[in-house]
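Example record

The entry below shows one chain as it appears in the dataset: sequence first, then structure tokens.
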Amino acid sequence: MKKNNTLKVLLITILVACLLTWILPITYYNGGLMTDSRYPTGLFDIFSYLSLTLYYFGSTAVYVLVVGAFYAIFEKTGVFRKVCDRIVKLFKGKEKIFFISVITLLVAIVAFCGFSYELIFVLPLLASIILLMGYDKLTVAMTLIGSAAIGVIGNLYSNAVVGTYISNISFEYNELILYKVIILVLGIALLVFNIFRHIKKYEELSNKDKSSLESESKELIAEKVEVKNKKGKVKASWPAIVIFDLILILMIIGAINFSGAFGIDIFETFHQSVMDFKIFEWPIFAKILGSSLQSSSLGNWTSVEFTSIMIIATIVLAIIYRIKINDIFTDYKDGAKKLAMPAFLIVLAYMSVVVTTNHPFLLTMLKPLLTITDGFNSVTLAISMFVTSIFKMEPYYIASSVLPYVTSIIEDTSVYSLIGFISQSMQGLSMLIAPTSIVLLGVISYLKIDYTKWIKTIWKFFGELLIVAFILFTIILLV
């Protein structure tokens, strides 16, 4: 347990959720607030919920494992390390530009696509680049987790985040967009500032301490590999680069909420026409692509479709760079193994959702806080949504468990967009420190950073972002 500090903290959090089911009666909203007797979690319930967690959220683990497998093959092409070396060389002496550019790009992707654990796709690449630049693992974690959190706090158009809150409380995508852009810009500035403050402390370490940290990081850096053709020449890099870029582009396009946020239905129309295309009354593309893709046009893709894309890309890479079949299976296993712990922790975190869904005690705990004042109160609402985010993690579960009751006691519809903004802000902030935060668990477990060490590093940024958020909430109310 000393070596698995993050796992210990996560297990304690799940245990707390189970214990609370023994203490608090269940309360849920169904046209009105319904309160019932206590419904405690039994010992055998825990094992049953483990099975339920795997059933409902196992695809998330598969996605993470496939990311590891993809990078194992990508590394075998020799292109992975070449790309890292070129980027490091390009930004030598321009590190501030690198961090500003990367963080801005990642924040923009999350703000439009709603990614969280999906960002793990860029984690091995980002880790190799930053470590080759001479920085430590905490710098990598701050960059990725911080960017994901900021993107959720100021989320603009994604169906996964703001779209979910809109479906539970009625408001428009463009409401409060100026304030969201402000918090995105300020969040980026604060993150860059905190990263360079951390880097300065790292550079002040003794050579002995730096050497120790660098030796721990070596296994995270892509190895140098050369793949040669029959003539003995090193194979071109561009096919692997194109394939990597295509995966990232398809993931971004696949998750942008074209129809709901922008009223663009071209992808849905095209998708339907492709699926309806028949040869001799036989829907050829619908049969080839499969039933799971029939209702998933670009703009509605999830990690399931992203997983399929990566598997196909991995096979194509192996064929182009003539990697032997036996090597493919070995590399696949080794690559998945590198991300096995992140996959395990991420899925385990979802057990908190299963427990609190089957034993809905949250409203019992939050009702006194939400009703401490009449009408809307940004502070009590923010605390309530932050607590909910720790146990529920994802917008769908956060919104459906608390917001129906919130809107029943707050009749002023003019503040609904602010309720949505506060909800996503608290969810984003929880991603920085909550022991159930799936992006946090995925990143720090891959980098082998203890949870307590992470908290000691990130708490100042968390506090600064929290202050900025509440200032904006106050301004919105005054305006």
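Notes for this example: The radius of gyration is 23 Å. The first strand starts at residue 25 and ends at 29.
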